[in-house]
Structures are given as structure tokens and as C-alpha cells.
Amino acid sequence: MTGEVLCRLADLDATGAKEIVLERNGARLPVFVAKGESRIFGYVNSCPHARLPLNWREDAFFDVSRTYLFCANHGAHFALDTGLCLRGPCKGQSLTPFSIHVIGDVVIEGESNAQ
Ligand code: FES
């Protein structure tokens, strides 16, 4: 199933990531997309430690090395490709993946219909 357009690839240039707040069944669903070397990843913006948003600043989801996803609340570091917490108070727990795909220069919610 293909969902709505989340952002353009160019929106990831400044910080490597972009937060998007969706509405699902009348409730807010904050998600973010983050750019790796060869892929874009999507996660729900909720830290498994205390269920807070990871970012304190707009679109700031990476640590200073820009290698790991980072929770600004208590410093958890997550693997970009799996969402697994590698360091911090929720070590061993994972971010909730949010399915995305890229068509051209846009990031779209959901799985690609292309085979
Ligand atoms: S809420 Fe993310 S590390 Fe505590």
C-alpha cells in the first residue's frame, strides 16, 4: 500500500533527517525519516526509554558524528539501519520502524508497489 508523500530528499540535506507529524484516526503520529549512505530509513519519533520524542531541535535526530540516531533526552544512541539502541538507558530496545519508500526525489509512506 502506498501512503502520502512525507518529504523531498532535499529536505534531508540540512540535518540528515526530517520530522513529519501525520494524523491517524484523529491522533498525532510523529515520525521521522533519516538518510543513511545508501538508504532512507523511517521510524516513529518515540524513544523506547520514556516514550518521548527523540529530538529537542527541529529535525535533529543524529549524534554529532552523524552516525547514530540520538535521543536528546537521556543520550540513547540507536543504529540507523535497525533502530536498535546500542548505548543508553534503553540499550537492547528498538525504535518502532515506519515503512517508507523513495520514488524519484520524494519519500513516501508505506511499502513500494514496484516489484
Ligand atoms: S527518553 Fe530517550 S533516552 Fe530517555
Number of helical stretches of at least 4 residues: 0
Shape: globular
Specify the structural class. mainly beta
Proportion in β-strands: 35-45%
- In the predicted model, the low-confidence regions spanning at least 5 consecutive residues are none
Order of helices and strands: EEEEEEEEE
Beta-strand segment tally: 9
Bound molecules: FE2/S2 (inorganic) cluster
Protein architecture, described:
With 115 residues, the chain is mainly β. The chain has a single domain (2-110), classed as Rieske Iron-sulfur Protein, CATH 2.102.10.10. Helix content is 0%, strand content 39%. The protein has no helices and nine strands. The chain has strands at residues 2-8, 17-24, 27-35, 40-44, 69-70, 77-78, 85-87, 100-103, 106-110. The strands form three sheets. Strands 1-9-8 form a three-stranded antiparallel beta sheet, with no helix packed on it. Strands 2-3-4 form a three-stranded antiparallel beta sheet, with no helix packed on it. The protein has a three-stranded antiparallel beta sheet with strand order 5-6-7, with no helix packed on it. Strand 6 and strand 7 (85-87) form a beta hairpin. The mean pLDDT is 95. Bound molecules: FE2/S2 (inorganic) cluster.
Question: Characteristics of this structure?
Answer:
39% strand, three-stranded antiparallel β-sheet, Rieske Iron-sulfur Protein, 0% helix, mainly beta, 115 residues, binds FE2/S2 (inorganic) cluster
